[in-house]
Structure formats: C-alpha cells, structure tokens
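Hey, I'm writing a tutorial for new members on how sequence and structure tokens pair up, and I'd like a real worked example in the thread rather than a made-up one. If someone can provide the structure for the chain below, I'll link this post from the tutorial.
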Amino acid sequence: MGAVMRQRRRKATRAEPAKLRRSASATRVAIIGAGRGGTALMEIFAEDPLVHIVGVADINPSAVGIRLARRLRIPVTREYRELLEMESVDLIIDVTGNPEVEQVMQDFHRFGVTVIGGASAKFMWQLIEARILATAEIEKTLNKYQSLYRLYVKEATSAVTEERTRIACEIHDGLVQNLAGLNFKLDLCRELLRKDPPASEAMLRETKAQLKMAIQEARQVIFNLRPLHFDKMELIPALTNYLKSYETQYHIKTEFSVSGDETVLFPKTKIFLFRIVQEALSNVQKHAQADRVAIQVSIGREVLKATIVDNGIGFEVDAIAQDPEKWDHFGLRGIFERARLVGGEARIESKKGKGTRILIGVPLVRKGATGHGKN
C-alpha cells in the first residue's frame, strides 16, 4: 500500500477516540465504492464493534460516501488497488457495479482475504439499506413509546433499560443473523450458477423463503416496540393482536379471556401488564416446551387480576429463586419488578411436569384520586 494511505491510517488511528477503537478480533473491512452501497455499508459497520473499516476507495472525490468516510475518520483513496495491497484486511467488498473492477476482484486471490462483489454485494448493501430504513422507523416508534414513559421515568428506568436490551438482542440474534445467512447463501448461489444451475435455482427459492421470514420477523420486532394503540391506549386489542401473532409465529395455542372495563386503568398499568404477559409468553416459547397457554384478565372495582397458565414441563420455583442467574435467565425478575412498579405483586406456581401458573394482582384506584397509577 502507498505511503499516503499508510499515513492516513496512522493519523486516523491516533485521532480515533478510545471508546470507538475496535478490538483486535474485529473483522477488518475494505470497501470499494462510496455511492449508495458503500454509504449503507459504512453507516451500519461503523456502529458495529466487531467490524473495523480500514479503507474506502472511489474515483469520484464527490461521491456521497466520501464525506461520511472522512467524518468517520476512515482512510480514503481514489485507487482501489491500494486496498488490495493492504496487509491488514480480512474482507473486501466491491459495490461499484463496474465490470472491470468486478473482473479484477474475481481474479484476486490471497490467503485469509474474502472478497464479496457483484450481485452478492449489491444484495448485501440493499438489505443493509433496508435495515437502516427499518431502524429509522423503529427509532420513530421508540420515540413515541418513550413519550409515554416520561410520566413515570423515575420509577421505570430499570424496566425501560431492560426492554431496550431485550429488543436489541432480538434484532441482533434474530434478524441480523438471518440477513447474514441470506448473504452467504447468495454467495453459494453465485458459485452454483456456473457449476449446477438446477441446484442454484433451488437455493434461490430457499433463500427467497428465508427472506420472507426475515421480513415477518422485522415486522414483529416493530410491533413489539409499539404494542399498544397509542391514540387510545387500548390494552385488550393490543393483547388480542399480540396473541394472534404469537400463535402464528410459535405454533403455541393461546386462549384469552377478559372481563371488566379497561378504561379504569391508567396507561402505566396497561403498558406494564402487556409487558408482563409478553415476558411470560416469551418464557413459555423458550423454556416451557408447551403447546398451549391460557391468559385471563379480570378488571374489578378494586383490583386487576391476571393469570397466565401453560401446560409445559414446569420447574421447581424454590430452586430457581435461590439461583440469581437462573432467576434472570427465565425472565422471572422482570415479571416481579414490573408488577411491583405498578404497586402490585406477582406469584409463580410451578412443579416439574405440571406446567406453570403466573398470578398478577394490582390494586386499582380511581383516576381522580391520589396514589398509585396516575403517573
């Protein structure tokens, strides 16, 4: 690599804040092309601690991604071959769409360096661009969701943090991993296209089906961020919709019954009850090995009661309660804390082979009275 490129890299390393420095195990990526594709890759990779962008190349100094690269302190060059000569690179992505560059990349082989280009690279950055747009929608929804929490943020800070972490894990462990898998399958399709066209066509059909599932998963994540009807804060319709989606996604039969008038409930109580049900059903899906779960909600004059019962394998409550790691792992702490934050309490009954029953009780007060629930 040329002296200018090395000098730029050294300057960028010295100027980079400590909190943005990547670990030694980060994948070192070079990007050829700073148009829409390169920009999308930079926007998503710059936030990933497991990826370090070591250089960006584009013959057009006014390309949309060049300013972004400089703002991110990523070394830039007009000669893409300088990136091929770099010693500290693990992955080179060509998003130029230039046949000449693509041919060079196809002929480029070096031990320990992976090259992605052509249709695979285009599909990859288009998926990432779609994810960026979806993230913007999620952020918009999250901002709306946060406006509800301003009423009781002092009490609920820990619960909000936990919820954000859970949603982030859902996106990272589910949607992002699925998209990464699709990208590798497309690489395989590209190779099969020359050697075994029928196998390539079968792989493309399978990839399309997986992409459809990824889209459904993205929609589910967005729904989880905005479960309640914000204009009217309707709990029962939100639970009904969630249970339908849950049943379709996990093939666990749900039964839902409700009595009473939800208009007597404060927004805070509605949100936390929804999250308790959501957490309980997540546990059923992950741990219970159940095929049926029943949810009952009873809204009385003085107390709200909710019961979630599954026919799964159950567990020994006392043993789990004495192990803080398992207590958190099974999501039980979140259920108890959410119930407490609305002035109520939770109780869990379970035995091995006997399923699990979660009982929630929340005392109610009138909206015109002082006390719990009006925050």
